[in-house]
Amino acid sequence: MTKNIETHILKLSCKDQIGIVANVSSILAKHNCNIVESKQFTDQENGYFFIRQSFTLFNINVLKKLEDDLLILSNELNAEFFLSDIQSSMNTIMLVSKFDHCLNDILYRVRNNSLNLNIKAIVSNHKIAEEIANFSKIPFYYFPVDKSNKEKQELKIKNLIIKNDVEMIVLARYMQVLSKEFTNEFEGKIINIHHSFLPSFKGAKPYHQAFERGVKVIGATAHYVTSDLDEGPIIEQDTQIVDHEMMPNNLVSMGRDVESRVLYRALKAHSESRVFLNGNRTVVFKGHRILG
Fold it and tell me: Which of 87, 174, 196, 215 allows an S-S link to 206, with CB 3.0 to 4.6 Å?
């Protein structure tokens, strides 16, 4: 199998207009870049255009000029653009409470190079995750939360994020509600795994609710966190078929598997710059880059 030789990723979004792809491609060609993957989408409802390209930059000395040309184009298009080294690891902080299955799965996938994340810290309001953090040689922070210290503990998390230049905050079954101020400040950077196929069965014991209703599928949802609880733009979802023979504990076990794989796919898409925010929705360009 031929190895991917991509070196950089370009994301650009703006109001749709004639010549966007041609202009971007011309700039890359001007600097002797070879496009490896290119995906684009125009939202016919709001008229927005989204493009993601991965390419090989053969001469690193022209990177600054390439960035300058892309910045000029983005200003002309009134666009947002993002350019990054494809090998750059995304600084990440993991927040978890009592259930550590998603955390364990993500740490495993980082170790086997399925995810290109640099996990700077694991934060929890319980001590259960301390052992796995120590095993993985990742700093662990125990910030217990109650009504009297919630704001203070959230400030500690914020300071960790700033100190470690964190680009992605993962709520891996972190069962605390973040403040509006916090979610607004880090909008587009916080990803939550919700233990049901939104919007059904919110709140406590979702699998028991599903059992009582006799559902035939259970599911999980990974979404960006906003000030509207569990209403942020959805990145990934999946379901699992169940039947009448399964008891609540069976649903819990199966649900954990669904949650883990949905969160993994969401983090992989986000870390590979495959996700665009599009109002209350997302544009997710599918792909699976093999990390080497």
Answer: 196
